[in-house]
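[SOLVED] Predicted holo structure with flavin mononucleotide

Edit: marking solved, answer below. Original request kept for reference. I posted the sequence and ligand SMILES and asked for the 3D complex as C-alpha cells.
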Amino acid sequence: MPNQVLIAYYSRSGNTRRLAQAIHKVVGGTLFEIEPATPYPSSYNATVERARREIQSGYRPPLKRGLASVEPYSVVFVGSPNWWGTIAPPVASFLSEYDFSGKVVAPFFTHGGGGVQNMLADLKKLCPNSRVLEPLAVRGSMAGAAEKPVVDWLRRIGLGELADNLQE
Ligand SMILES: Cc1cc2nc3c(=O)[nH]c(=O)nc-3n(C[C@H](O)[C@H](O)[C@H](O)COP(=O)(O)O)c2cc1C
C-alpha cells in the first residue's frame, strides 16, 4: 500500500522537529524537513530581523530541496514554529509550491507563549481547497514530551485510527 501520510515541517532550533518526530513515532509515514536554500543565521536576533523583513514583505524563500510529488499523500501534517505570530516563511514557501487540494491538512505548531495567533488563518490561505483540521499547538520547551498530547489531538481531530500503529 502506498504510504499516505506526509509529515512536513520547518524547524530552526529543534522544537518543531521534536514535535514532528513525536507525530512520526505515532503515525509513521514520510518525514520531510522543509529547509530554506539560505539558512537563517545562527544568531537569534539576526533571525528575528530577517524573519520580520520576510514576513512584512510576504517573501517566500526558495527551498533547499523539494518533494517529487505530494500526490500520493492524503493526510499532510504541516509543522511550523510561530514567527511573529504567523507561520515561518519556509513553510509558506512549501505550502505555495505544492497543490494540497482535496487533502486533509493537520497543522502542528510550536511557540514561545503566543500560541496560534494568526498561524492557522495564514496557513489556510495557502491551502484553500484542503480540509484543514484543528492545529496542535505546543510550547517549544514542551515539544520533546508531546507523545500523549499528539495521541489526544489525533483522537480529537478524527485521526485516531492513525495512532493505532503505535507500537508500545
Ligand atoms: C524569528 C522568530 C520569531 C518568533 N516569534 C514568536 C512569536 O511571535 N510568538 C511566540 O509565541 N513565539 C515566537 N518565537 C518563538 C518560537 O516560536 C519558538 O521558540 C519555537 O518553538 C521555535 O521552534 P523551532 O525550534 O522549531 O525553530 C519566535 C522565534 C523566532 C526565531
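OP edit: The longest helix spans residues 44-57. Thanks to everyone who chimed in.
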